[in-house]
Design a protein that fits this description.
single chain; mainly alpha; 7 helices; 0% strand
């Protein structure tokens, strides 16, 4: 074998090794990026889960339950005709804000794709829609009176529930039913 052929072979081997090294480096970079993405998603999911659990916990508190009860069952009869909600007396205004802003915050999470809408619709659907139905006149009058677009995410979430009711979510999830049994 002459020196030219040996040099050519050495050059080819060097190029092949360089290409293999480059491919291994690119593969390592891709794998690292995929692992980093997975870790980021895992971290994000943990943060979202913490927010959702805190929201669920918040809805079990007495102040929230009183606010929901007031909004759903007393507001429309005690304050007829509706007024801009900021013009309500302090107690009713506080209840409207408590319920409306809670659902508005949930709506933000849904609209921005942070939380799947099925989770929220399945958990709060009917009461959320009923709350919007009661609060909408007060919210729209507030928007008109103060020239600000309040509770848009709540309104969007209510619309989502109106086109996809909780029963659809339950059916899609394949939730089972177990009616009460009668004793023999």
């Amino acid at each position: 074998m002459d020196s030219t052929t040996a040099a050519q072979r050495s050059g080819v081997i060097a190029v092949v090794l360089s290409v293999v090294t480059l491919l291994v480096s690119v593969l390592a970079l891709v794998i690292s990026a995929m692992l980093a993405r997975r870790q980021l998603l895992s971290s994000r999911n943990a943060n979202v889960l913490a927010m959702i659990l805190e929201g669920f916990k918040d809805t079990r508190g007495d102040d929230y339950l009183q606010a929901v009860e007031y909004v759903l069952y007393r507001l429309a009869t005690e304050h007829q005709p509706p007024v801009p909600y900021m013009d309500l007396p302090q107690g009713p205004k506080k209840y409207v804000q408590r319920v409306g802003l809670f659902y508005n915050h949930l709506g933000k999470l849904v609209a921005h794709g942070i939380v799947d809408e099925s989770l929220i619709i399945g958990s709060y659907g009917r009461s959320l829609l009923r709350a919007w139905t009661v609060l909408a006149p007060y919210v729209y009058l507030e928007r008109e009176a103060r020239r600000r677009h309040v509770m848009p995410y709540f309104e969007d979430l209510a619309w989502r529930v109106s086109v996809k009711p909780p029963e659809d979510v339950y059916r899609e999830l394949g939730l089972h039913v177990l009616p009460p049994t009668t004793s023999p």
